[in-house]
Amino acid sequence: MPPRTRSAWLKTLGQLAMVLLAAAAIGMALGHPWQVVTCAALGVVAWHYWRLRRVLLRLTARQRLTPPLGDGVWNELDRLLYRGQSEMRSRKRRLIEMLRAYRAAAAALPDAIVVVDRLSQRVLWFNAACKPLLGMQYPEDMGAPLVQRLQPLPLAHWLAAGRHAETLEVPSPVNSSVTLSLRLIPYSENLWLLVARDVSRMLHLEQMRRDFVANVSHELRTPLTVVHGYLDMLDPEEHPDWAPMLAEMQRQSQRMTQLVEDLLTLSRLESQGSLPEEENIAMGAMLTTLAREANALSQGKHEVTVDDSSEGLDLWGGHKELHSAFSNLVSNAIRYTPAGGSVHIRFRREGSGAVLEVSDTGYGIPPNHLPRLTERFYRVSTSRSRESGGTGLGLAICKHVLNLHQARLQVTSEVGRGSTFSCHFGAERVRPREAIEVLP
């Protein structure tokens, strides 16, 4: 108990004792001590009731009344209440200022921000950017169902996914030429935050980049063909001094040709929203082809093994695209595995789906490089990649092919022990293996 409060409490007890002693003395002088003491006690109770009533009226009136001067318990209580009310008002004022600052910051954002009730999926608040991007009006749309208000956007199934909803790219309901990237952020048990960002310019720049790469790669084909033709015409036996230079020129031109082909393949895959043609892919024949290509590239320097433990499963998709993806994984395993190492290709069942794995005993990949492996031209070791003849586009091509098949690429690696690249396919991409009739 603070010293001032303790002092007020002791002073009040002393005053009460003095009143009762004075009443007893007066009562003894009158010959009725108990009656006088009782009346004095009732008077003290009445006075305390009156002070309590004043405190209650002060609390219910919500007025900032200056506490009276003096000592005693009731004056100390008035002082503490006044201080508590002042601190509460100050805290409330700071909270209101913070809330205004947050709302002003949200209103100033160029992205559309909508606060949504999770249970009813109704709009609780939105900023000014929602009007040009989503067409929402204040106050008409406050409390409106979000799915109904943003029609014809396909939001019903997207909102049903909740915190697991992926980023959704849709045209703006106000202007179909504007593309919005929608993101759902659950920030409490009952509230969601819908963020809509205009990504039209970014998509336009991305399309310009793809067109530029495709056009440049296509135009490079003709001069490279001419260079190859002239190099083939030069006979190293007629010019022995030129043999090392001609060999290097041929090697670099072939590498450039492979780079152009990979760029064209990647550009074609990026521009495709779906596979042009789908068919049943015989995985037995695919594994045989991959093993033959691996042995041809290895030239006997590696041990190549194949394991088909899929229990009679095939894949459904684009044969050319999947062969390109699998071939890139196998060629990478050969290139980045020292002579004497092994490469293992395995196709197996995984739940209701299937997975194709390419494992090697190569150099391995440090963990900090794994998230960026599928970026185009990203190299873990530049010198090693150039020595092996890689273009830096194989894993990017593999990623885009798997995306077109609703599949995913998983990479596990340990430095000095090797790497495993796994292509995981869902149940919708798995088919029972067709029996092959053997003609007599």
Automatic annotation (TrEMBL):
It is found in: Cell membrane. The keyword Endoplasmic reticulum does not apply. SMART domains: HATPase_c, HisKA, PAS. InterPro entries: BphY/WalK/GraS-like, HATPase_C_sf, HATPase_dom, His_kinase_dom, HisK_dim/P_dom, HisK_dim/P_sf, PAS, PAS-like_dom_sf. GO terms for cellular component: plasma membrane. CDD domains: HisKA, PAS. Its EC number is 2.7.13.3. Keywords: ATP-binding, Cell membrane, Kinase, Membrane, Nucleotide-binding, Phosphate transport, Phosphoprotein, Transferase, Transmembrane, Transmembrane helix, Transport, Two-component regulatory system. One of its GO terms (biological process) is cellular response to phosphate starvation. It comes from the Bacteria. Its main location: membrane. Member of the two-component regulatory system PhoR/PhoB involved in the phosphate regulon genes expression. PhoR may function as a membrane-associated protein kinase that phosphorylates PhoB in response to environmental signals. This is Phosphate regulon sensor protein PhoR. It comes from Aerolutibacter ruishenii.
